[in-house]
Amino acid sequence: MDDKRTLKKAPYGEGTIFWSESMRMYVARFPASMYGRKVSGYGKTRETAVANRAKAVERLIKSTQRLVKNPVGKILDDYYAWLDGSNRKQNTVYGKKQRLNKYLKPYMTKPIMRFTENDILDILQRARKEAKAEENSRIANQIYSEINQFLNYAMKRKYIKENPIVLIEKPSYKSKARQDNELYIDERIRLGKELLQFTANHADKYGTMYGILLIASLGLRTSEIRGLTWDCFEHLDDKDNAILNVKQQYQKNRTTGKMELVEWTKTDSGFRKIALPESWRKNLWDYRSWQYNLAIFGVIRSAKNLGNFCFVNKFGNPFSDPILAKYWHDLKNAYEQERQKTDRNYKLSDLDKNMRLYDMRHVCASLLISSGQATIDQLRPILGHMDRRMTEYYTHLTMESERKIMNNIPQLIGGIKNTLK
Questions:
Q1: Topology of the domain comprising 72-173
Q2: Nearest CA-CA partner of 373 in 411, 410, 413, 405
Q3: 11, 119, 275, 329: which has the fewest Cβ within 10 Å?
């Protein structure tokens, strides 16, 4: 009779079969060299142990096949198809694909279940090295968000059990423009007010920029300003009832290279309704009449878009991003020259020269919050999407405004002096 405690070569192929005294059963095992890990089967008889080992091998092979069938590249293609079918803007989807293709390229054939935290850290490190400043990398910040969204998609569809990015801190990023806006908001507000007044005083020459600044001061993005059409307004001729529907953008399609009007969807954070201030309603009504007069007298050479786009160039075409940026730059230069008529030493500061039309959106929000006229919750439906960093900054402004209000309480309620020593 065989000694059960003796390790024996399996008569049923490679591997070993032995009796385990502690488990009181036979163990049939293949070494790690065969399948990349030890594979064992257990039973009261050798035959049962071997049969169970065969089942374990079959399960391992199927598991490996599942891994091979779900490489990162395949799931990424599924994710792209899902993005294409969503209501996201085409340019947004295009950007996501470009970034993910670039940084996930080395991992395309890797099973997604084996795409780990270390892989993501390597990607972020590469992104930081490609940035101008490693500690303030927009690239790393963006690709973190893109990978996180992709892995959340995979997790919801049970390709992975958990998202490996959750334990990694998102890289911080703050653009130079945003840093300047936060540090020098008073200067931004000053120049914004001065340029609006300058265009109002010289509306015969800068009427288009006057109209644009009126809209910019309502918190619209530059692409939304370019895409504004007169049918975006409701009751523009009706006192105290005028509404602006922010529902579209005019931008370049990054796939075709052509400019096109892209509508926000109602489920998108860009779509919103803004109540027009009465004085702004009157000014915009005057601006519309002025624009039509330009067409009548031939200043605008083509009137084909006048009944449509609110802001057009002398050829009657809506503005592209570079052309509107040039108009903005020329306006600041004209303002500087006007100031030099009374103060020859006047020059725009570098901060003023770098101010973008887009920064008027920040001016609008900061004025409303710092004056105590609006809260962040009231501001959200006006501005549309605000990311975490914008929210944090406006929270700081809100606290300053609330502190000013609370500082009035001692005088209002009395009891300022006391006899405490």
A1: DNA polymerase; domain 1 (1.10.150)
A2: 405
A3: 11
User: Residue 11 — very low, low, confident or very high, per pLDDT cuts 50/70/90?
Assistant: very low
| Percent of the chain whose predicted confidence (pLDDT) is above 70 | 81
Annotated domain spans of the chain: 8-67, 72-173, 179-405
Q: Which two tokens stand for residue 355?
A: 């101010």
- Alpha carbons 218 and 1: distance in angstroms, whole number: 94
Q: Distance (Å, rounded) from C-alpha 322 to C-alpha 319?
A: 8
**What is the CATH class of 179-405?**
mainly alpha
Helix (H/G/I), strand (E/B), else coil: 411: helix
Q: Tens digits of per-residue pLDDT, 212-236?
A: 999 999 989 999 999 999 999 999 9
Q: In terms of DSSP bridges, do strands 259-263 and 248-252 run parallel, antiparallel, or are they unpaired? A: antiparallel
Any idea what DSSP says for residue 320? P
pLDDT of residue 345: 94
Q: Is 248 helix (H, G, I), strand (E, B) or coil?
A: strand
Q: Please give the single-letter amino acid code of residue 32.
A: A
pLDDT tens-digit series, residues 296-310: 556 565 555 555 899
39 Ramachandran zone, left/alpha/beta (phi>0; psi -120 to 50): beta
Compute and round to an integer the Cα radius of gyration of the chain.
33
Give the span between the Cα atoms of 99 and 52, in whole angstroms. Answer: 47
Q: Which of 221, 243, 224, 246 is nearest to 234 (CA)?
A: 243
- Residue located via tokens 């309704």: 273
Gap between the Cα atoms of 87 and 93, Å rounded: 10
Strand 243-246 with 248-252, pairing: unpaired
